[in-house]
Input
Amino acid sequence: MSAILPLPNLLLEPMVRAALQEDLSPNGDITTRAVIGADARYEARVVAREVGVVSGMQLAKIAFHLIDPELEITTHIADGMKCRATDVLMTISGSAASILSAERVALNFVGRMCGIASLTAQFVAATHGTKTRITCTRKTTPGLRMIEKQAVLHGGGFNHRFGLSDAILIKDNHIAAAGSIEQVLTRARIFASHMMRIEIEVDNLEQLQDVLCIGGADVVLLDNMNNSTLIEAVKMVDGRMVCEASGNMTLPRITEVAATGVDYISSGALTHSAKTLDLGLDF
Output
């Protein structure tokens, strides 16, 4: 997979700044102010303590530079690359006080994003040899969706919609509120521009048959179906829509689900259940 273009710092700085303000308010880093001399200078290293996929290095650099633009920072392993235990991801040189004050926020971001990228990479590996792509969902940490979805890309996955305004995704509650599958698809077709895709969720093959007969959807979300039902659903669709499998898509299931022939597997676990990668900052 080619390198992922970084997000503009302009978009990332506000969330990093907010995290630093949360950590430093109202009186700054009083421990560092009490015990570290203003002239103390050190070189620190961000070190991986386990195997994973790197993400969040841009966020760490922003955190250190917001505290002190004079810090000298070198990134040794870029976002999207694999790391081993003991690998040095980044070195930071300059004011010891500045490094210590930014340390926790920088590590929080990097550990979280590396965890998402690493779990995504495991999901992607489980689809090897199939056409199936792994994609995330909107089950993200409030305020961090943009960077968590970027971490999914670093792990080799793909992004589902970023928000409610990206595309029309008709869920079971929309169908219930509107009255029928025919009603929602008819209204969606009237509303959608030529640039807007329409996806509809179905829970069983009877609903899928209704969608196929009515028409108008570009993507069908096959929700909480077992593997044999997914195989039958893919046969029924026969290439007329993109097939997305979702619901209880845990890592042990992924290889079997990918073998059913679905185009996408979406999993909220990529972002809501990823374990933070163990990192340290060593002086």
